[in-house]
Amino acid sequence: MIKRTSQDIRRLNRFEVLRHVYAGPGAMSRQDLAAATGLSFATVANLAAELLEASVLLEAGREDSSGGRPRTRLAVNAERGALIGVDIAETSVHAELFDLTLAVRHSVEQSTTSWS
Q1: Taking the alpha carbons of 59, 10, 45, 50 in that order, is the dihedral positive or negative?
Q2: Which of 17, 96, 103, 105 is most buried, with most CB under 10 Å away?
Q3: Looking at 1-116, which runs of residues are DSSP E strands?
Q4: Contact at 8 Å (CB) between 39 and 55?
Q5: What is the pLDDT of residues 41-82, one digit of tens each?
Q6: Are strands 82-88 and 71-76 parallel, antiparallel or unpaired?
Q7: CA distances from 53 to 7, 25, 57 (A)
């Protein structure tokens, strides 16, 4: 049996919250995240506060609730980082730069036939 520390559990919970924000249908409220992850609302609220402070997530508007305060929706901060993908084929090299929402920011293709 693997022994996990409280830091390990917190890291796994943070990953789970981020995974649902990335894979979800768009921006999600803390309540939606609690329901999707099975974590308590308090845990999700604490993790969301950490991720907002680190600028990994950002507030993306509000939604009406069926009672009480409007819910703040959370989304991935696209400007927080970038990813690059490279496809090396027989006749060309294709590279794309993505933001963290996986939107293409720049794309370039170079033929390898001119390299010989």
Answers
A1: negative
A2: 17
A3: 28-29, 57-63, 71-76, 82-88, 92-99, 104-111
A4: no
A5: 999 999 999 999 999 999 988 887 777 788 899 999 988 889
A6: unpaired
A7: 18, 23, 8
